[in-house]
Amino acid sequence: MSQSLTQPTPPAPPLAELALTGDLARPALLTVPDLLAWPQHRARVAFECATSGVRHHGFEGPLLYDVLRDAGPRFDPSRRKDRLRFLVVVAGADGHHALLTWAEIDPDFADAPVLLAVGIDGTPLDRAGPQLVLPQDRCGARHISGIDTIRVDGRHPSRPDAVTG
Ligand SMILES: Nc1nc2c(c(=O)[nH]1)N[C@H]1C(S)=C(S)[C@@H](COP(=O)(O)O)O[C@H]1N2
Ligand SMILES: [Mo]
């Protein structure tokens, strides 16, 4: 008696997409495979979660700085003070989000080796979405997984009453 040997293969879930938005000359919609176009870095990190204790992971991916710089933040790159007014809002698809300052990742300032991970412990993040990796953080809360939006924001007036329109 013959039997069907092949089951229909369920369609693969779509690739996650990351939107780079805000005060950028070149906003972009990137997949995790797109992030392989930048130089790749590795980091072994340990961080503590308030609820589940210490975690150890190995990540690889481009520097957040390299990816955002290529999106063209709307500051004058030759003026260091101009860059100090920019924030980077990193958000997961579940709404968890954190703010970094541009100066935190800028080589002229704190130069933190923050990664936009394309893989965790050897597993690609193509469908889960990229993950923020801050090797210098003791706490795990900024290791945002499933990032779907990174917004660069340079609209910070020096005084609240200076806000216009
Ligand atoms: N998208 C998203 N990322 C997140 C969180 C979250 O709630 N949503 N929690 C953070 C916290 S509090 C910790 S400690 C780490 C936990 O990482 P792990 O799941 O690899 O242990 O993920 C971080 N990344
Ligand atoms: Mo946590």
UniProtKB/TrEMBL annotation:
Database matches in InterPro entries: OxRdtase_Mopterin-bd_dom, OxRdtase_Mopterin-bd_sf
Annotated Oxidoreductase molybdopterin-binding domain residues: 17-127
Pfam families given in the database record: Oxidored_molyb
Annotated coiled-coil segments of the chain: none
Name the record gives this protein: Oxidoreductase molybdopterin-binding domain-containing protein
Organism: Streptomyces populi
